[in-house]
Write a structure and sequence with these properties.
This protein is an alpha+beta fold. The protein has one domain: Aminopeptidase, CATH 3.40.630.30. The protein contains four helices and ten strands; from the N terminus they run E-E-E-H-E-E-E-E-H-E-H-E-E-H. The strands form two sheets. A seven-stranded mixed beta sheet has the order 3-4-5-6-8-10-9. The chain is globular. The N and C termini lie far apart (about 45 Å).
């Protein structure tokens, strides 16, 4: 079965934080974002609650797959993102929070925002001036406009420009 060249993203940005926040204790945790490894794929499976085929994403030569972890707990992945760095922007293919970070009983807030901010930061670092694009589910277009400052470019295409990206990067990544 062939996989699509593009996905319709349906992540929700629960809260823009400066890290991730434990909903039970209210404690804030520093995060680290790094490329996944082949060994990581053993824990990123549907049987462990992941919805998407991250092995497929990992095997795509034009894509980079990153994991979000808590700084002192690198074995537990809080979320994942698959993206491609293009000459003038970053394109987000997939973004997924760990199963325990989804829904009303989620453990941590700020996971999705953290991953989107990382895509923005990567765009600045790789010459895209912060521009990030992705395809959105129709019912989440207004949500991304309000929470991320994204622009709706027709159809399902969403774009974060330099200003919106700088705001997210400044929120999540302190010098």
């Amino acid at each position: 079965m062939s996989k699509p060249n593009s996905y319709i993203l349906n992540f929700e940005v629960d809260k823009l934080t400066d890290s991730i926040i434990n909903r039970i204790s209210g404690d804030s945790f520093r995060t680290e974002i790094s490329l996944i490894t082949k060994l990581d794929l053993k824990t990123i499976t549907k049987s462990r609650g992941w919805l998407f085929d991250w092995k497929y994403e990992f095997e795509q030569p034009s894509r980079e797959v990153y994991k979000l972890t808590i700084y002192d707990n690198l074995e537990i992945f809080q979320g994942l993102i698959s993206l491609t760095v293009k000459p003038d922007h970053v394109y987000m293919f997939l973004l997924e929070s760990a199963a325990f970070n989804i829904g009303k009983n989620k453990l941590y807030e700020g996971v999705s925002g953290n991953l989107v901010a990382f895509a923005c930061k990567l765009s600045f670092q790789r010459g895209g001036d912060g521009f990030v694009s992705f395809e959105s589910k129709t019912n989440l277009i207004d949500h991304y406009v309000k929470t991320l400052g994204a622009y709706h470019f027709g159809g399902r295409l969403m774009v974060l420009d330099t200003i919106a990206s700088k705001r997210l990067v400044d929120k999540y990544f302190k010098p």
